[in-house]
Amino acid sequence: MDKPNIVLIMTDEQRGDAIGGLPGSVVDTPYLTQLRTQGVYFPYAYSACPVCVPARRTLLSGKKPATHGVLMNYRVSLEGDTLPGLLQKAGYQTHLSGKLHLFPERKRYGFESSDWADGCYSSNPDNDYNRFLLENGQFNEAGLSHGMSYNGYAARPYHLDEKFHYTTWCTDMALRFIERRDKTAPFFLNVSYHQPHAPCTPPAYYYNKYWNADIPEPCVGDWVDDLPNTQNGMPVNAWRVDPSSRSIREYRAGYLGCVEQIDHQIGRILYKLPPNTIVIFLSDHGEMLGDHGWIRKRSAYEGSARIPFIMWMPDAYAKKFGIKQGTVSDLPVELMDVLPTVLSMADIPIPEDVDGISLLPAMRGEKVDRDYIHGECCRLETIGTGMQFVTDGKEKYIWYPALAKEQFFDLVIDPQELTDLAKSKEHVGRIKVWRNRLIKELEGRPEGFVKQGSLQGLKGPTPYCLSEELLASGSNLKDTDNGETTKQ
Asked: Which residues are the signal sequence here (predicted)?
């Protein structure tokens, strides 16, 4: 059998529960629901470092953040083998349509060709979406003339014709590649949408549908005691928000509208795929959407860290790999698993320095030697924003090194993380098990997280999130979210 074509469809900031048909979900996604129910679905999928740049480095390299060295959005080149690069060496034609969010910008990282734009903002002259707008009679930054921030909660319907929307453009470019590809070679196509990341500005049909729908309000745990005082309003680019505000309801409506818009565009792609094509769908991380008074990402909570993860393939390949379609795997999985899984499906050797594992055995229903995944995130400037977590999707332990604070959640009975069990006497034994798992992950690391077999709380600023080699290139270290410096 010929090597399969691989289409990796990736959204930005899509929560694990933002797919139709899941418990509690109110979004309509007929095409993603079809892929989920007909393929293999991983409900316990996580982004181990739930921020754009480190998550994308993890996916393309197959290496955990502690290995590739970046745990926040920094402008640092990714060195070594990448998924598209390895596929290209094996004879695949590789193409990117949409967002890459790696640096230096326009570095190919193994993609032979690209229609590249790291977002729907359009000020970068090298941004192909910006070029598209200018060539079609729009002005510079027309994609942002609605006034909505690309890191804030303000939302509204899209202001231009739908044909100018970034989501439509990204799909159009993917279809153009499929039509013009070299049909004598297998292909790897990464379709990388910018949304539902802010600005949450779907076309009016989608926005109005969810604004008028009975969408749930954000959940707030009984452990939350620091909701912001919004008497004087909320900064649009805030991280902490009033979950009961009208603005957050608008944000949630725009977000869900963006998800459904992307789903319909994915339908266009599915109709055009050759029959020997495997489809993978996932996101780089989630979005808090006001839950517990937070928006955006960076946290270990389910809204931020859990992602959708679907593998779908034609029956011929399912038979070849011994996979039963329409199944749900209870294995905890992570973005680093994408590279070894794709390589194994394409019968390409997996590099020895990869941290992820091939998911083919799990998709066959075989026992896999993994009980949990480990995640972490921090800024270079201070450990005050840092977190560590371990989870199997059913229980979760979180530790904050700067605060010497821990949290524990039973996700089976409390999937919204409403009750923190860290101080529960009833759960002391389980908490100890998870704490020891985190200690095992952090033992011997240079940051000093573990001393004499116990977690060590840290105090004061320390640049512990980057390797020595990357720290040496400090002139290139800019904390960036979609090309701009941000502050938390």
From this structure: none
